[in-house]
Amino acid sequence: MTDDEYERRVIDVLTSTHPGWYYQQRDLPGLPRWWATRYYPLRPDQRKAGARDVLGRTTLHGLVRALARHDKILHDLRY
């Protein structure tokens, strides 16, 4: 399996497990490579708890971890 195939499979899994997000890759120097953007904005209490509308990480693995932490924040709020 090539790196591109692996990345596509991970994005497919993210799309099915975290469907409220739009995923994209940007190759811009000095910026995170992988991005997840929520389709719908968060409530103020969710933001205050640490949830974000946009997550950016330099690696796909880092983005997966960030989404898991984000889910825990929302779970703890009973969202």
What keywords describe this structure?
single chain; 79 residues; alpha+beta; 47% helix; globular
**How big is the Rg?**
13 Å
Proportion of residues in extended strands: 15-25%
Return the string of H and E elements. Answer: HEEHEH
- Share of helix, binned: 40-55%
Low-confidence stretches: none
What does this structure look like?
The protein has helices spanning 3-17, 44-48, 60-76, and strands spanning 21-25, 34-38, 54-57. A hairpin with an 8-residue loop joins strand 1 (21-25) and strand 2. With 79 residues, it is of the alpha+beta class. It is built from three helices and three strands, in the order αββαβα. It has one domain. Strands 1-2-3 form a three-stranded antiparallel sheet, covered by helices on one side.
Compact description:
The protein has 79 residues and is an alpha+beta fold. The protein contains three helices and three strands, in the order H-E-E-H-E-H.
Layout of strands and helices, then pairs:
Layout: H1 3-17, E1 21-25, E2 34-38, H2 44-48, E3 54-57, H3 60-76
Antiparallel strand pairs: 1-2, 2-3
